[in-house]
Amino acid sequence: MPATGRYLYGLIRSENDRDFGCIGLTHEGKPGRVYTVRVGSVAAVVSEYGAREKVLPLRKNLDPHHQVIREVMKGATIVPMTFGHVAKGEDEVLKALRRNRDDIQTELDRVDGKVEMTLKVKWDVDNIFEYFVSTDEELATFRDQIFGRSQAPSQAEKIELGRMFEERLGTEREEQTERVVEAFQSCFSEFKVSPVKNEKSVMDVAFLVDRERQKVFEERVYQVAGTFPAQYLFDFSGPWAPFNFVELDLHTAAA
Amino acid sequence: MELASPRQRLRPVPRASALRSHVSRQRRVSLCETLDRVLNKGAVITGDIVISVAGVELVYVGLNLVVTSVETMRNWASGGPLSFDDTSRAGVADKLAASREDTPVRAGMEM
Predict the structure, then answer these.
(1) Contact call for residues B56 and A82 (beta carbons, < 8 A)
(2) Distance, CA of A208 to chain centre
(3) What is chain A's alpha carbon radius of gyration, rounded to the nearest angstrom?
(4) A231 and B45 in contact by Cβ < 8 A?
(5) Pick from A41, A135, B6, B61: CA 20 to 30 A from residue B41's CA?
(6) Burial category of A198 from C-beta neighbours within 10 Å (exposed 0-12, middle 13-18, buried 19 and up)
């Protein structure tokens, strides 16, 4: 008989066994029933899955993973697992919970009653270089100097201009991020700055916010955005499970 | 990046509709944002006895690649250039790298 594994979605605190319905990853042709495997008040949210089956990062697998986390989040604080964890069976899940119980408790306490809100700020301009040159005299002067002559600028000069631009971009990002985090000080318990993914991004910050203070946070976004010039576009999303704040590495082997 | 001549230098002109910095709240969160979390963040389990982390290795190649991989693999699944039996990591990564697109993929995930 082939062993049935358990796919893991996340960890919650619960005094009772819970059933979240058939919203899990597909197992044997139908959506898996999502329920808890519990040790005391620490529970893993799981569904049946082939123990030897591969979990490829496909939409059909990623969607239910995320949907389950969001469903569980409605009524509990969940420490989400990274996509793709399959235990060989329920016993193995129990073993992992027992072995890491203290760490899990600590992590659940830290994020208890909190959600993650993400704030992304962008420079909403057509040409980011042009925007910086127009606001930075030193950059403008140097640009005019090397491009204003009859002969074309040398490679070294272009590199120097590029370097200056990069440096300004970095400094500006740091300063604005500091300013924003400062402005949100009263709204979060922790924050995390992620590296920006493109040139026009000013910042990408995740905040750990009390579930009840979510509205306060949202209002604050509008207030803070109002203190910035029109070139700054604020984009926020959430509530998310505290993905950015989980630092849990569970061990399965005895230490 | 194209450099404009000094004469073309523009002062930032606030658009009439946006004298103040604006806030947008996307109801449809991009697939990218979800993927970034689901694949790169969250609790992990290490140890080779109990848990296997399957397929996730792909994410280390980069998020863009995975976005592509999801789309590409869907095509492959319907008789494309790669069958699921030969999804060895290197093979997939190479093929994905070659087929990489910068087109943003949006999911219809309502927040």
Answers:
(1) yes
(2) 10
(3) 24
(4) no
(5) A41
(6) exposed
Q: Note the pLDDT tens digit of each residue in A194-217.
A: 999 889 999 999 999 999 999 999
Spans in chain A with pLDDT lower than 70 = 1-2, 253-255
* Closest to A11 measured CA to CA, from A117, A102, A118, A116: A102
* Cα separations in angstroms, B5 against A145, A149, A164, B8, B21: 11, 11, 18, 5, 28
User: Which pair of tokens denotes residue B81?
Assistant: 């250039």
Q: Decide if B43 and A81 are in contact by the 8 Å CB cutoff.
A: yes
- What's the token pair of residue A211? 């579930």
The DSSP output letter for B43 is B
Cβ neighbors of B43 (< 8 A, separation 6 or more) are A10, A11, A79, A80, A81, A82, A107, A246, A248, A249, A250
Take residue A100 and report the two structure tokens written for it.
């890491």
Q: Does B16 touch chain A (CB under 8 A)?
A: no
Do A37 and A97 form a contact (C-beta atoms < 8 A)?
yes
Residues of B in contact with A236 (CB under 8 A): 23, 25
Given a contact cutoff of 8 angstroms between Cβ atoms, the answer to whether A233 and B24 are in contact is yes
| A130:B10 CB<8 A | yes
Q: Residue B102: pLDDT above 90?
A: no
